């Protein structure tokens, strides 16, 4: 019978292979930064050029398999109203 330590290791490996663990870490990191952000000052509206640049950056990150960085970017863009 498997021990609790072995089950934790298998679960961690499975979540890492599926990309879930990294996504959760990135989401938590983004939420920590959002909690520390000054909410009294709303973010400035994004111009069409900035929207295009943000999309290009997202595509670059996903193309190069920077899934965790892309998920942090998307969480931040979602927070700012992208």
UniProtKB/TrEMBL annotation:
GO terms for biological process: cilium assembly; microtubule anchoring. It is found in: Cytoplasm, Cytoskeleton, Microtubule organizing center, Centrosome, Centriole. One of its GO terms (cellular component) is motile cilium. The keyword Phosphoprotein does not apply. Its main location: cytoplasm. It holds the Pfam family FOP_dimer. Residues 44-76 form the FGFR1 oncogene partner (FOP) N-terminal dimerisation domain. Gene3D superfamilies: 1.20.960.40. Transmembrane segments: none annotated. Keywords: Cytoplasm, Cytoskeleton. This is Centrosomal protein 20.
């Amino acid at each position: 019978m498997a021990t609790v330590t072995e089950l934790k290791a298998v679960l961690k490996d499975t979540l890492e292979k599926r990309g879930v663990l990294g996504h959760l870490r990135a989401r938590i990191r983004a939420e920590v930064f959002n909690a520390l952000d000054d909410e009294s000052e709303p973010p400035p509206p994004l111009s069409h050029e900035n929207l295009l640049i943000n999309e290009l950056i997202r595509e670059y990150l996903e193309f190069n398999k920077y899934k965790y960085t892309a998920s942090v970017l998307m969480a931040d863009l979602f927070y700012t109203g992208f």
